[in-house]
Amino acid sequence: QGSEEAKAFVNAFLKRSMPKKTDEAIQDILTRKAVVLEHYSKKKTKPKRKKTKGFTAKQRREMRLFEIEPGQQRYAIFLPLHELWKQYIRDLCHGLKPDAQPHMVQAKLLKADLHGAIVTVTKSKCPSYVGITGIILQEFKHVFKIITKEDKLKVVPKLNSVFSLEIDGFISYIYGSKFQLRASERSAKKFKLKGTIDL
């Protein structure tokens, strides 16, 4: 009786352990001295990462997050920002000393944050933009938003425009067509010093 129970137990155990095997295959395995049990591991489902919910570009436009209130569009309000920007550039360029190499200063300005800089549109394929001078309030991929001394907010496209900015006697020119990047992307980009200079 003991051997019969053992045989029944082994048969049942093998069926549970090897569900894909037929009874004939199990019996064939039992005739051998060694039994190799097959292991079927359950596939572990990876928990899905929850994406942080942020606003879409459409929602940001609808909420007008980046729009400056008309009452805040005054040149005098942003002069302290310009003073902070000048100090930031001086620190970035180690003081802007007279013996500073122009190409080194230019390379740092290309990657610097321009919010607060006073710029002038020196050239443009659209003549109405030429001569606009003011403080950069916002920089987007394709445009600068500039507040002028007349308290007018101007949106100037980078494409086909040349901008100049001056700090401590150093004048730098920005060729907008080569500058169509967001401020965050520009800081990581490698600019070529040589190349075609064109609107």
UniProtKB/TrEMBL annotation:
Molecular function per GO: ribonuclease P RNA binding
Presence of the UniProt keyword Cell wall biogenesis/degradation in the record: no
Primary subcellular site in the record, as a coarse category: nucleus
Keyword tRNA processing listed: yes
Database matches in SUPFAM superfamilies: Rof/RNase P subunit-like
A Gene Ontology term for the protein's cellular component: ribonuclease MRP complex
Name of a matching Pfam family: RNase_P-MRP_p29
Subcellular localization(s) per the UniProt record: Nucleus, Nucleolus
A GO BP entry: rRNA processing
Gene3D superfamilies named among the record's database cross-references: Ribonuclease P/MRP, subunit p29
Keywords in alphabetical order: Nucleus, Phosphoprotein, tRNA processing
Functional summary from the UniProt entry: Component of ribonuclease P, a ribonucleoprotein complex that generates mature tRNA molecules by cleaving their 5'-ends.
Subunit structure: Component of nuclear RNase P and RNase MRP ribonucleoproteins. RNase P consists of a catalytic RNA moiety and 10 different protein chains; POP1, POP4, POP5, POP7, RPP14, RPP21, RPP25, RPP30, RPP38 and RPP40. Within the RNase P complex, POP1, POP7 and RPP25 form the 'finger' subcomplex, POP5, RPP14, RPP40 and homodimeric RPP30 form the 'palm' subcomplex, and RPP21, POP4 and RPP38 form the 'wrist' subcomplex. All subunits of the RNase P complex interact with the catalytic RNA. Several subunits of RNase P are also part of the RNase MRP complex.
Family: Belongs to the eukaryotic/archaeal RNase P protein component 1 family.
Name recorded for this polypeptide: Ribonuclease P protein subunit p29
Species name: Psophia crepitans (common trumpeter)
